[in-house]
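Thread: Newbie trying to understand structure tokens

Hi all, I'm a second-year student working on a class project, and my supervisor (Dr. K.) asked me to get a predicted structure for one chain before our next meeting. I've only ever worked with sequences, so writing a 3D structure as a token string is new to me. If someone could post the tokens and maybe explain what I'm looking at, I'd be very grateful. Here's the chain:
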Amino acid sequence: MSEGEDARHLELLMNVPLSVTAELGRCTLRISELLKLGAGSIVQLDRPAGAPVDVLVNNRLVAHGEVIAVDDRFGVRITDVVARRTQA
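---
Reply by user tm_fold:
Sure, no problem. This is what the structure looks like when written as tokens:
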């Protein structure tokens, strides 16, 4: 393929919606524990404070990052892009 054809094919993908998730950690709770949660409850996650967050695209890990605050909003600064596995 020529560069022009590559650019046209890439352009077709530019408007495809993707689900992007930043995951701080996980935990498992019983329904009875979940129902006891309220404002101010603390849920212990499987990662220590300050650990990198995982950035997933369509449920696939693509990067690690750190939580940042800008004005009154939170975001994730990408610190490491996960290498893509090559198929054999």
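A couple of things are worth pointing out once you decode it. The mean pLDDT is 89. Residues 36 and 42 are 11 Å apart (CA to CA). Feel free to ask follow-ups in this thread.
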